[in-house]
Amino acid sequence: MSLMAKQNKTIKHKTLSSYYPKLYILGDFLNEFINDKIQIIKEKDPKSYKDLLKNTICTLSNLKEYNNDLIIKEKLKECKKEGNNSETQQEIIDYILRDLLKTGDKNILITGNRFPKVDLPINILRPNIDNRHVNNSSSLLRNTEWKLLRARIGDEAFKLILIQLSIFLPIGNNCFIQLSGIPIYELYDHSKFVQSESNKTGQSDDSKESFQATLRCRRKRKRSNTDEDMTFSKKSKINTRSLMDVKIPRQRIYYGHASRNPQGKITYGLPQSHPLHKLCYMENHFQLSNIELLRFAQTVIPSILGQGNDDNLKTKGNKYRLEGVLGMINELVARYRKIDFRHTLRSCVKNEVNPVSVGILKDDHPNVKPSTSVPITQVFPDPTSQEDSKPFKLREAGDAIPPLLKPVSHGQVCRYIIAIFRRLFSSEMLGSRHNLDTLTSHVKRFVKAKQFEPINLHSLLQGIQINEFQWNRIDPHDNQRISVSEATKRTRVVEDFIEWIFSSFLIPLLRHTFYITETSTTRYETVYYTHEDWYKATKPHMDELKDNLLVRLNKTESYFAQQGPLGVSAVRLIPKPQGFRPIVNMGKKIKSKNVLGIPIHGFNKKEMTANQILKGVHQILTFEKDRHRASLGASLFGTNEIFGPIQHLKADLNKKYGKVPNLYFVKMDIKSAFDTIKQGKMIDVVSNLLDKNHDYCVMLYCLLLPPASQASHGASRRLFKSRAVVDDHIVSTFGGHAQEIAKPLRNAVIVDLVRRKQITREACLDLLKIHIQNNVWQIGKQFYRQKVGIPQGSKISSLLCSFFYACMENEFLAFTRQQGSRLLRYIDDFLYITDSPNLARRFVETMTKGFPTYGAQVSSGKTLLSFECETRGQMGAIIDPGDDGQILFPYCGFLINTKTLDVMSDHPRLLIGPIKQSFAIRSDRHKGSTFISWFSRQLENRNHIAYLDTVHNDINTVHLNIYINFALTSMKIPYYFKSDEIINQRREQLIVDSLINSIEYTYLAGKARINHVNNRKNDIKNHYNIKKSNFIFLALNAIIMILNKKSKYKGIINLLKLRLKLKLSNKQHYKDKQMNEIIEKGWNVIKNAKY
């Protein structure tokens, strides 16, 4: 157990020290505080008792009193040291639990117990406390080692330590499970102040003033209200709010549907249900009454209009301001009537976009010759709608309709939206030309933002001059200085107006005009299509899906489908380089509560989604996956599992040949893997996998992981998770399951939530049958049942697909399991590596024939070989060698050297498009202080053990991987700090410090990760033979060379060069020919990247 002891016998733990200022070993704590002649540990004591005292961590459960340890020390000295033989161990435990209940504080020991309403005397013959679950935390105290501890220290001291201390038991890998004390997940807010106390104050842990000061300041201090502020607050009655927290729901622009008139033609502008549209096209729209204008004004600027009925709308503030607002609303309505949205769209949006710019025609890999097939993107339109009789783009006679679906560029979308804005919002309405230009610049940023990027009201108000809005003034001709109260009211009115423009006008306008989505190639980039083009391109494929994949339901079947336990699913499609991928949205709330006997926690309180209902089934399938791993063949359940088989293959080949021989690589993919699975066969596969003799139980627990970096300020990561087991495993303690959970972890803390869900095998199988055989899609107003395949987008679809093709592999591909060969399969992507050309060709022939009993056929367009071989009478695609003559074979984000089996990241694929498409910044708060955390996470994504293992890989390959990782990650920095952000000297220093800390953290994290994996294998070899100086040299050079292309970062580059000289005082690195060759080679790889 890697615990760092100090002179005062306190220790440090990466996770626990984030919550507690002092940690002790239980034996040391008792020896220090119990000062008498009695020995707590004796030579002949059982090993379990010695391990309990030597490896258990304890700390103060109550953090409110800093000197609590001194108080406990005095109480322990006063305790009697002899035990009371008249009371059993269980009676003592019941006394402790009853006393804990009286304190009113949460405690792990009393979790899972039921207490009587009447406080009766405790007697072993009359149980006073009822355990709701077998073997909860308090049951561990009945073990022999705890009985012996009670006998050594006495009943009073035994009660005291269990009531006053938080105790953590070891479970391996420096991980612990909490036995007693306030649940550590309840102290989550304390995680920030402990680390700041130890790192920033520079004082010892025994500094009372430092700890108490940090305790008081663990949360951001709010500004106190002055008398003037209090007076204003009472007078204005305006609720203050943080503009940073007012988020614009930009995610609503995605996956919209076109609106059509009764003749089936697409309508443009706002939807007909929008309040502005309805107001403009009322019967008496030329003479709107004040009541009608007030109703609409209530939705635009709610701060000046309170809640009320139609005849009695309550107004707030001055009536003259309300008159100005109504005048602005009247002008807004009049301007909206005059806009011809269709004509504006025609003039602004032209089909001149190169589809390659959004990835529609991109090849699968740059080293593979392009396919000749024509990709067409698809979607599910409303089958009841009709195609518009007029083409969208005016064409002359003889012009051919474009065969490809081309996206609308961001520039064209911005041109259209800005044209609408300038027709609708005049400079007089917004106060000035400056405000109009500022608003349109925010519109451009809104349109070009990537998916999941937040946009808040604070950012949209930047540059807006509030005092320029004339209709917001009580007296437009009064230019005198205004009061604080008046300024606040004006600000709030403008805030409401700007929020309405983006949330209630721009979002419906975009959604109603364009079909907006992401694609499989552009990832986070927002892609726009006109609804008409989208419909025309997808209608033929929709008809094909109806014939081959779906069965239409009648009215009766549709009604019962909506009442089913999993409801119905909405469907959307993701454009792919060749075709589309239908994604079933199972995140829709389900009103039905009949879930076939599977208890769902909280279902009666709130509606749940299909994926939430399937969570218990997912845990059961995950449990069976781990139990039957040997029978699942070459299945990989994550890209992290790819390196292990390759590593074993290289070791076998070296053992067989003494070197890596000539190898043959084959990569194949099942065509439409999810949509061609035979449902009956899938049910049989799952039924054989489930336990036939036992039911299941799902246990809930909390997992706390150590801080990721210094940027977290000591805050650990808290996750609430669940784990499924079969009934015969429940009799064991949760500690046994915690040891299994802790095997792949390090420095973690696990807390049993003592919550159990019983799920029978029959209920699990019945829910799976409904999910697989009765998956209902809603397309428009019609309902369809999927007759072939399983739904994509389900929580369990990947597991089901892996199980299905594992069964197929065991039946038809068992010949691949020979020495010198290795088959890998990630869901439906097969990779076969062998030293036998005959086996390679046999694998190609077998896969090419297909598997009719499983409905599986190989996608010939995705087949890739490292040797010449015919597939279906044609030569298969062969990977081309690189400029250096080496062949790097791509597979699931990795590049595998066909001669050495060295592993690299698939950087050519990452460099096909702009690097900004590969990530999204999901928070815009505190970007300076959180930069180190963000940058460290980006580095960690490619800080894989496959790239850093120096036993498997050549050292030059590892060095090249390090350089490329930092180079690719550094390309994201210009997008993290926007072009209009000012980087002063103070921020430059902060960025440089963050980069240096991230480099050091990445080096140590990679080392710890590799050592942990190899320690589990009892491998004594040094798999991380990387010098820290070389690591820093490569990382800093990569960052400097990338940022050197951006003049904005000149100051940062100079500081990094200075740090490079200070970090590497030995000039040998600059003269090292091998290191410079790696930098040159790495730069040649990434120099043409777009960033």
Question: Helices and strands in order, then pairings?
Answer:
Elements lengths: L3 E2 L4 E3 L10 E3 H8 L13 H9 L1 E4 L7 H11 L10 H15 L9 E2 L15 E2 L12 H10 L1 H10 E8 L2 E6 L10 H9 L8 H9 L10 H10 L38 H6 L9 H11 L18 H19 L3 H8 L61 H15 L8 H16 L8 H4 L23 H30 E4 L9 E4 H18 L1 E3 L2 H8 L6 E8 L2 E7 L3 E2 L17 E2 H4 L1 H13 L7 E2 L6 H15 L6 E6 L9 H11 L6 E10 L11 E10 L7 H9 L6 E11 L1 H13 L2 E4 L2 E5 L10 H16 L8 E6 L2 E6 L2 H13 L14 E2 L4 E2 L2 E2 L12 E4 L2 E4 L5 E3 L1 H4 L20 H10 L4 H4 L6 H16 L2 H4 L8 H32 L11 H16 L6 H14 L4 H4 L1 H14 L5
Parallel strand pairs: 8-20, 12-21, 16-23
Antiparallel strand pairs: 1-2, 2-3, 3-4, 4-7, 5-6, 7-8, 9-10, 11-22, 12-13, 14-15, 17-24, 17-25, 18-19, 18-20, 21-22, 23-24, 26-27, 28-29, 29-30
Overall 3D shape: globular
Gyration radius, in Å:
34 Å
Structure annotation, total helices: 37
Might you state the CATH topology name of one domain? Topoisomerase I, Chain A, domain 4
- What class would the helix/strand composition place it in? alpha+beta
* Assembly state of the chains shown: single chain
The first-to-last residue Cα distance is 45 Å
